[in-house]
């Protein structure tokens, strides 16, 4: 016990104490019945089977680890995931471990901890039993650190940092004892890859559209780098500036400089304008067959009227950017001009397409369909070709959307944060029921900006997965 209370281990003890207080607060919140229904409990429903589609939505399960300063470990916690774990434990009790079925195309999409999470949901009895190696040594798998010491390995490499510089980074990014791990996982998982299924899906042609940065973007990238350096050296209060704000500004800047300041000029060579030109050309060529297209963009999504009014008021009164962030150095040059409304990439693309000749009725935002009935009606219009350009975010148009009948092109206008989201986007067009033998996926990047970091991050993740001897990251679990 003295070893754990020594000065070198006190940091871990403090973390345990903090975690204990956090768990106590969560339990108190969960036990608070003042705002909960008191009619029927889950146990009283008589459920004896759970079928969970898109199971990756429950990957943010509580996890404690002593590993510090290691990337690739997801310790975020969602209450719905904790609730799902409790339901899985209950179903195991009444069915002997045969009452839960998970289905997902991306069981491991962003972090290797997600495989351990899947095993906690589906193989808790196996984790409790532990693992015995070829030498007869027995290892516990109940806690993540024990599991990681057997099946995971940390790797230190030089990586491209968000501010555009290269830094050494230790990452939990490689599986160890992979055959044994997959043998355990396959006791529960029925893994089917696209190559094994031979589904009648169209061939894909990928197009990478590279946009050169404008002078304003180059100067703002340098400013982001200076801000990141100040954060890393502790020169700025985290409440004033931090890496989360910097990466958010970097993503906006890579998409369109007008998201930083709506008064910046519209760069004719921006990736937004490149997307507009491609969409119009494909729309024009596909008029005879009423071919349709999807534009996916997770930033600058259409806002509710109240939020747009708040941003408009803030900019007019306090020289602020949309979202309340202060203008940067270049923005101060335009401080005497007051914009009428916050800039929206969605509205900008729609107005340009309409000006080029596409009827307004053939362009739609998924965000306008805010009820199930409206979504059903909108999806039917896309499948019939009455709506030929549909715009939306990965969250709104990712898993579960079936409008593939006439889809000929998908445009990844921005790069999603999670690698698994790219697979979800691709699955909207490379899908059974698409009438086109060949489809096109356009991916847009602004060189020299945060865009490059995100795309390089996804490419490296894909290479790491492909380098495994076994399918360490299964493509499907059903």
Question: What report would you give on this structure?
Answer:
The chain is of the alpha/beta class and 478 residues long. It has two domains: 46-189, no CATH class; 198-451, Rossmann fold. Helix content is 40%, strand content 14%. It contains 16 helices and twelve strands. The protein has helices at residues 10-31, 79-95, 113-122, 124-129, 144-151, 178-185, 194-197, 215-232, 243-255, 271-285, 305-318, 345-356, 372-384, 394-397, 419-426, 450-466, and strands at residues 50-53, 100-103, 131-132, 138-139, 152-160, 166-175, 203-211, 292-296, 363-365, 389-392, 407-412, 438-446. The strands form four sheets. Strands 7-12-11-8-10-9 form a six-stranded parallel beta sheet, sandwiched between helices. Strands 1-2 form a two-stranded parallel sheet. The chain has a two-stranded antiparallel sheet with strand order 3-4. It is globular. The two termini are 45 Å apart. The relative contact order is 0.12. Mean pLDDT is 80; it is low at 1-9, 304-340 and 463-478.
């Amino acid at each position: 016990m003295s070893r754990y209370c020594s000065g070198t281990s006190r940091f871990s003890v403090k973390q345990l104490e903090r975690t204990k207080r956090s768990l106590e607060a969560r339990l108190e919140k969960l036990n608070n019945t003042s705002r909960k229904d008191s009619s029927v409990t889950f146990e009283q429903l008589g459920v004896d089977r759970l079928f969970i589609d898109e199971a990756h939505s429950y990957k943010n399960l509580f996890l404690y680890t002593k590993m510090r300063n290691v990337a690739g470990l997801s310790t975020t916690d969602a209450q719905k995931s904790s609730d799902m774990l409790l339901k899985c434990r209950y179903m195991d009790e009444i069915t002997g471990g045969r009452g839960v079925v998970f289905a997902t195309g991306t069981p491991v999409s962003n972090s290797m901890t997600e495989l351990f999470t899947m095993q906690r949901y589906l193989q808790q009895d196996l984790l409790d039993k532990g693992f015995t190696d070829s030498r007869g040594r027995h290892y516990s798998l109940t806690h993540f650190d024990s599991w990681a010491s057997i099946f995971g390995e940390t790797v230190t490499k030089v990586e491209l940092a968000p501010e555009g510089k290269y830094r050494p980074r230790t990452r939990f990014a490689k599986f160890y004892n992979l055959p044994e791990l997959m043998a355990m996982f396959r006791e529960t998982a029925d893994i089917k890859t696209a190559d094994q299924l031979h589904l009648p899906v169209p061939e894909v042609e990928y197009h990478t559209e590279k946009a050169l940065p404008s002078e304003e973007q180059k100067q703002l990238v340098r400013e982001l780098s200076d801000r990141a350096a100040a954060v890393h050296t502790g020169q700025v209060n985290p409440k004033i500036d931090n890496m989360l704000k910097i990466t958010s500004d970097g993503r906006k800047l890579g998409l369109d400089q007008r998201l930083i300041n709506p008064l910046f000029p519209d760069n004719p060579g921006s990736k937004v304008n490149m997307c507009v030109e491609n969409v119009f050309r494909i729309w024009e060529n596909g008029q005879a067959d009423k071919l349709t297209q999807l534009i996916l963009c997770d930033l600058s999504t259409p806002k509710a009227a109240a939020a747009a009014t708040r941003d408009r008021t803030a900019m007019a009164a306090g020289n602020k950017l949309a979202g309340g962030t202060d203008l940067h150095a270049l923005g101060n040059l335009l401080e005497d001009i007051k914009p009428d409304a916050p800039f929206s990439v969605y509205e900008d693309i729609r107005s340009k397409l309409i000006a080029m000749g596409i009827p307004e009725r053939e362009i739609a935002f998924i965000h306008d369909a805010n009820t199930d009935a409206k979504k059903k009606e909108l999806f039917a219009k896309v499948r019939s070709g009455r709506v030929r350009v549909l715009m939306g975010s990965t969250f709104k148009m990712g898993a579960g959307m079936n409008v593939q009948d006439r889809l000929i092109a998908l445009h990844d206008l921005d790069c999603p944060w999670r690698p698994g989201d790219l697979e979800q986007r691709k699955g909207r067009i490379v899908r059974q029921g698409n009438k086109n033998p060949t489809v096109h996926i356009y991916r847009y990047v602004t060189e020299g900006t945060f865009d490059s970091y995100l795309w390089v991050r996804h490419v490296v993740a894909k290479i790491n997965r492909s380098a495994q001897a076994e399918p360490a990251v299964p493509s499907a679990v059903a």
